[in-house]
Amino acid sequence: MGQKLKIAGWVSLGVLAGALTTVSLQTVARGGISPLPLEEIQQLSAVFGIIKTDYVEPVDDKKLITDAISGMVSSLDPHSQYFDKKSFKEFREGTSGRFVGVGIEITQEDGLIKIVSPIEGSPADRAGLKTNDLITKIDDTAVKGLSLNDAVKRMRGEPKTKVQLTIFRKDESRTFPVTITREEIKTQSVKGKLVEPGYAWVRLSQFQERTVDDFVRKIEEIYKEDPNVKGLVLDLRNDPGGLLDAAVAISAAFLPEGVTVVSTDGQLAESKSVFKAAPEYYARRGQGDPLKRLPAALKKVPLVVLVNEGSASASEIVAGALQDHKRATIMGSQSFGKGSVQTVRPLGPDTGLKLTTALYYTPSGKSIQAKGIVPDVMVDETAEGDVYAALRMREADLEKHLGNGDASAEAEASAAREKLREEARKRLEEDTKKPVSARRLPEFGSDKDFQLQQALSQLKGQPVKVSKTLTERPPEKKDKDE
């Protein structure tokens, strides 16, 4: 649920393949491969043969093999994944921040698709679509009854193809069709503004290929508007992660050069690495240091980082590095707890494998796997409390999640958590009976954003309304046979 009690996505992007993932995109030539277990391979072959001859209807060979590979990989942990042609294309679009579509951020409301905002300069923006417009039909298909993902797929397509959207504009009480030509869209993973004189807010929603450049441009804009920024809030709430080099770069923007940002450790030699706040660890080949244009004052400006249960992976790397180096005050609620690194290895021109190859550690050597970053100051999401936090999934709730070696949690922690979830479920049931406007959580970055207001109070040295209910969630105590 996070910021709003609803699902949101980018049109033509859909659900980001690789969400909650810190990814290192690379291809590594395999040297020595362990001998194949012949007995098990023979058994697999026997099962394949029996299915081909005995199953109730013919089964395609490619489907059987693909499903076998997918099952083998997905059984390892929640983040390893086999990509077929379609999912591999979507994954690469998601990490690049580029996709083909109409260019609107959307959500679902009362069974219809609601436009949260058109992306500036996109086909939808040029067509005059506005925030709060409702999409009732996509071509000849009524939106009512479609899932958000189904609606997104219908608005996706090839460049220069057309899609007709039927729009209901509430404030004008009229319905009208708009024909839009799809084109490549560049998503904006960085937002920011001066919330008041001297104090800035910068939000990262994902760590994509373009995130660092967009971050630098946004910081330049802010300092051009006010060269004497006295405090900055870096908002990583509901940021599911993304590319490792982008996380290292954002950390380096605030840290002294050369200090450790994150280290990784795994079975392969290349998985045992230390990433530091220096260009050679984040600059892409031939592109130079993207942080050179940043104002020097950014290294010293008082900083608060906001996190919550939706902050995962790359966002936890940034929060952990800034916390360990005492560069920022971390505020909000305990983060997701995804402390593993996935490497994407192409298996051919259009398929690939995303495999967990390492765990990462904060500069002080702490693993956040299945635990998360614990804020320095716990702050509820609203003045009424963190009413739905217990319902949000974290790494420790995922089936087959990797442990962090800490089995010190007491057994009653699970029972206490279930009690909180039951209370939150009842609250949610009551809230669903209210009008949508009455149950919507405030928009991040608005003057009604309670956690942002507390972050500003922290920067100004004013009293902060610390949570009276949030506590550190201890790691799960796993059974010995898991």
Automatic annotation (TrEMBL):
GO cellular component labels: outer membrane-bounded periplasmic space
Residue ranges of every copy of the PDZ domain listed in the record: 88-156
InterPro entries tied to this protein: ClpP/crotonase-like_dom_sf, CtpA/B_N, PDZ, PDZ_sf, Peptidase_S41A, Tail-specific_protease
SMART domains assigned: PDZ, TSPc
Keyword DNA damage: no
EC number: 3.4.21.-
Single biological process term from Gene Ontology: proteolysis
Region annotation Disordered: where it falls in the sequence: 402-482
Basic and acidic residues compositional bias, start-end: 415-450, 470-482
CDD domains: cpPDZ_CPP-like, Peptidase_S41_CPP
Keyword Transit peptide listed: no
Entry's transmembrane regions: none
GO molecular function: endopeptidase activity; serine-type peptidase activity
Lineage: superkingdom: Bacteria
Keywords, sorted A to Z: Hydrolase, Protease, Serine protease
UniProt feature, compositional bias: Polar residues: 451-460
PANTHER family: CARBOXY-TERMINAL PROCESSING PROTEASE CTPA (PTHR32060:SF30), TAIL-SPECIFIC PROTEASE (PTHR32060)
Protein family: Belongs to the peptidase S41A family.
Protein name according to UniProt: Probable CtpA-like serine protease
